[in-house]
Amino acid sequence: MEGRLNSGKSILAYPSGKLCVVVSLKDDETLPNSKLPSLVYRGHQFATSVVKISTSGAYVASGDSRGKLRVWALDHEEHLVKLDTVGLTSEIRAIAWDGESKRIAFAGDRLDNSAVCTKAIQWDTANSQGTLYQHQKGKCCAVAFKPNRPFRVVTGGREDGKMHFHKGPPFVKMPVEGDVPCEGAHSKGITDLRYNSDGTLVASVSGDKSICIYDGKDLSLKTKLENAHSGSIYSCCWSGDNKSLMTASADGTCKLFDVSSDGTSVTEKHTWKVAEFQLGKPCDDKTPRGGLQLGCAFVGGKTPISVSTNNQIAILPMPGDSKEIELWTGHCAPIGAVAFDQDKKIFYTGDSDGILVKWDLEKIKAINRVVPADNDDLMYTVHGGAVNGMTMLKDSQLLSVGWDDTGYYTKDGKLQGGKLDLTAQPKDISTGTSLTAIVTVEGIMLLKDGKQVSSGLCSLSYDANAVCVSKDDKKIYVGGDDNKIYIYEPTSDFKLKEVHVIAGEHLKPIHSLALSNDGTKLAAGDTRDVCVYNVSDYKPIIGKSRWCFHLQRITSIAWSADDKYLATGGLDDSIYLWSFDKTMRRIHYPFTHRGGVVGIAFRKDLEGLKLISVGGDSCIVQWDFTADAKAKFS
Prior knowledge:
Layout: E1 11-16, E2 19-24, E3 38-41, E4 48-53, E5 59-64, E6 68-73, E7 81-86, E8 92-97, E9 103-108, E10 118-122, E11 140-145, E12 152-157, E13 163-167, E14 172-173, E15 190-195, E16 201-206, E17 211-215, E18 221-225, E19 233-238, E20 244-249, E21 254-259, E22 266-272, H1 274-279, E23 293-299, E24 303-308, E25 313-315, E26 326-328, E27 335-341, E28 346-351, E29 356-360, E30 365-369, E31 387-392, E32 397-402, E33 406-411, E34 414-421, E35 426-431, E36 435-440, E37 444-448, E38 451-452, E39 464-469, E40 476-480, E41 485-490, E42 496-502, E43 512-515, E44 521-525, E45 530-534, E46 540-547, E47 554-559, E48 565-570, E49 575-579, E50 586-589, E51 597-602, E52 610-615, E53 620-624, H2 626-633
Antiparallel strand pairs: 1-2, 2-3, 4-5, 5-6, 6-7, 8-9, 9-10, 11-12, 12-13, 13-14, 15-16, 16-17, 17-18, 19-20, 20-21, 21-22, 23-24, 24-25, 25-26, 27-28, 28-29, 29-30, 31-32, 32-33, 33-34, 35-36, 36-37, 37-38, 39-40, 40-41, 41-42, 43-44, 44-45, 45-46, 47-48, 48-49, 49-50, 51-52, 52-53
């Protein structure tokens, strides 16, 4: 991660979904030519598989599951694309830059025999830099570029377990004389290859649990350490001083090895039991599925980290350091719901994998994942289906609902014992003070203080999409698929009494509802229009065809603390800011979340217009609209 622009900084780059994430491990460090410590790049159309920062630190190369290779600027505020090309016919699994940041070697899979699984190209024009030897079955997941001249490129076969050594440019395979270069040191597929920073040694790891060290210039075998781990080794990385090699394995551990300067000696120095740390107890004979260590790196050349199958990043303390392992967590699957507890300064999110995460509202940082009752597989799956609704109850307890037709209770980031049987798939959920309403495909369920009080589901004559409960628990507003808003009062026996219907104001089904903080106005969103009504007489303050600029379903609505502004988010990836003082004006923030906006909320603990948005791209973003609102609406 060292380079001209980020030398000395602890910068980490990794793929997540369709995104590329570049982040500093330290909150007080910023990225090159940026005021922020993190960056999310959204240029790929398919799931990203590998991200690699150039040796200069100015550019990033990233590949995806469809073989697309993009090279884009890290040090430019708009991250302009320098190269966009189809590198392989299938997934790109590994990328390596040369020491001059002028050439890129990459490897992956091919779909047919006429294609290739390894390439070396010019970084900006994609011109070929020679012909790399192809591996059996067209599968290669490891490539290493010698960082200095004379340049060498090494590739490792995923199926054949062979290593091919090339010199150049233009690169051609070096013939084997005797046992140099050594191509068959491993008995199983090679999973990773790494040159040290001065190019004198190459390390390889494999599914055969061994580590091999080679000469960097001719690939002659220096030493081989058998059974370095009790499971397959997936990754390796050199420390910044080239004295140590770190490995990550399927046995749930990462290990640190001392390597002599001539490469003839490899000695185990330290073991990090990452899976056991996450599990909170010793692992049985079998490593938990979520605890497999898939990758490792020395960030900044000195901070060891690893990533697990459950997508949690572990920052590991060096031997002699008294610190514990630190976990970075969050979501990798699309977020489906969010609930804010502004008084406690926390919020929760849930994703399509059924995982719940607790967040710090002030730092916008994940605190921990909610641990289910049975987490022996370390996958943290609370719900058996996607989470699509969340609400905070009166006692700062979270109620989450999902496609498993079940509600779970969480308090202080810990799952509680009871659960709620919804009997039908939920669509939306809302809480006033003590009263909670859950809209399902079969009707509405009512709860008081988190306990079911309605007799089963209150059936409806229409399909309901959205619900909102007033703060005094006296009114329940339901948005229907028939373009109408129904207003109910709960009876003493917790049935629904219809008191009014807002009809003829919307042209599309209602998908979101929100009451103002003073309870005098109701905002409703459909697939185009945002309408605002006076609660006293249900007459429109903002009628249809005025705030009508969303292109897809409006999923979330948020009122500012003074009720002068309204923010709306939709599946069109946009957030709009509206003002009741200047109703003919609007501020449009496009491309806010890839996959649509899931939830938004104005922060009440800060002055100005600070908004938190959550999206289907698994990202949490904080916005400051204060200056924009002043310029537009003054």
